[in-house]
Amino acid sequence: MRRGVGARCVRAPVPAAKIRGLEDRRQHRAPVPGAAAARTHRRREIRGFDGVELLFPYDLDAHAVRREALAQAMPIVQLNSPGGDRMAGEAGFAAVPGRESQFRQSIQVAFDFLKACGSSQLHVLAGIPAQGADAKLVRATYVRNLQWVADEAAASGTRIMIEPLNSRDMRLRAFNACPGG
């Protein structure tokens, strides 16, 4: 199975009801020895994906997510770090000056979820700095937070990712291009 660069993954903001629904249906199936592996392989072939990236799964039970991923033979290949209050427009804290404490807390939540769901790759969200924030301070905050999370990730066996996004997909993000991201 391919992981990381080149792997075909589906991004899935999986709702809790869907996970519970899939678990409920599975309870009513009679196990057929040998057939499960064939069904699993067919499902993966039909879907065309090798794994799942969960965008914001933190309101779900990580152990239930892991069980369902195993049942569907779709490993959780990556999570986004917690984004904060998405309704208020937050999208992470790594590059947001003054939010360093919240950044560290959010990363600890992410590491706990990763461990429980059986994944080891985390997309660290840069966030959206306040309008008019000093660009040098934003970059310095981002670099300091990435250095901290890299050390923490190395200690826990977690791989971190950063991803510059274009401004159409994530307006006003801290870094929207490769040179800054």
What does this structure look like?
- With 181 residues, this protein is an alpha/beta fold.
- It has one domain (9-161): Alpha-Beta Barrel (TIM Barrel).
- Helix content is 41%, strand content 10%.
- A five-stranded parallel sheet has the order 1-2-3-4-5, with helices on one face.
- It is globular.
- The two termini are 28 Å apart.
- The model is unreliable at 1-35 and 176-181 (pLDDT under 50).
**Backbone CA Rg:** 18 Å
CATH architecture: Alpha-Beta Barrel
Supply the CATH class: Alpha Beta
CATH 4th-level superfamily: Divalent-metal-dependent TIM barrel enzymes
Fraction of residues in H or I helices: 40-55%
* Tally of DSSP β-strands: 5
Number of domains: 1
Shape: globular
Would you identify the regions where 5 or more consecutive residues have pLDDT less than 50? 1-35, 176-181
Strand order within the widest beta sheet: 1-2-3-4-5
Order of helices and strands: EHHEHEHEHE
Mean pLDDT comes to 75
| Largest sheet: number of strands, sense, barrel closure | 5 strands, parallel
Strand content: 5-15%
N-end to C-end Cα span: 28 Å
* Helix and strand composition category: alpha/beta
Tell me the layout of helices and strands.
Layout lengths: L8 E3 L4 H12 L7 H13 L3 E4 L7 H10 L4 E5 L19 H18 L3 E3 L11 H22 L2 E3 L20
Parallel strand pairs: 1-2, 2-3, 3-4, 4-5
Helix pairs in contact: 3-4, 4-5
Q: What's this model, at a glance?
A:
The chain has 181 residues and is an alpha/beta fold. It is 41% helix and 10% strand.
Task: Considering the chains and any ligands shown, give keywords for the structure.
181 residues, alpha/beta, TIM Barrel, 5 strands, disordered N terminus, disordered C terminus
